[in-house]
Amino acid sequence: MASVFELARTLGEELQKTPQVEALLAAKKAYEEDPEISKAVAEYTQMHEEFQAKMQAGGIAPEEQKKFSEEMKVRGEFIKNNKLAADLYTAEMNFNNFMNSVFNIITATLAGEDPAAQGGGCSPSSCASCGGGCH
């Protein structure tokens, strides 16, 4: 009998072959290779961290807070409207939904339940609960 760790490794190898993982890896690669979006996210993150540090160091004047909020909104909209960022977000969401389905099957099985009989897991009848993306 295979050990739990061997089965987990096999599961990981099989998960790598799924459309959800393939889509996630492709979206992540495209996102990371685009200098424009990478720079925009890095600047957004840096600005947010610097602002947080200033807040913790003793506060910020209301006009500076307003300016920061307006600039972060513009930068956030740029990131949100970027196709590569949107594709990555969608791929991450689909992957997370898929992995939740896998985890639900494992959890139900551990509890002695039949995931298929409960309408859980990954089946066409339970797509509404996980957001689909599997079939």
Description:
The protein has 135 residues and is an all-alpha fold. Helix content is 76%, strand content 0%. The mean pLDDT is 86.
Q: What proportion of the residues is helical, as a percent range?
A: over 70%
- The global form is elongated
Strand runs, count:
0
Structural class: mainly alpha
End-to-end C-alpha gap: 31 Å
Main β sheet profile: none
Radius of gyration: 21 Å
Provide the residue-averaged pLDDT: 86
Number of helices: 6
Poorly predicted runs of 5 or more residues: none
The succession of helices and strands, N to C, reads: HHHHHH
**Beta content:** under 5%
Provide a concise account of the structure shown.
The chain is mostly helical and 135 residues long. Helices cover 76% and strands 0% of the residues.
Keywords:
135 residues; 76% helix; mainly alpha
List the helices and strands and how they pair.
Blueprint: H1 4-16, H2 19-33, H3 35-56, H4 62-81, H5 83-110, H6 127-130
Helix pairs in contact: 2-5, 3-4
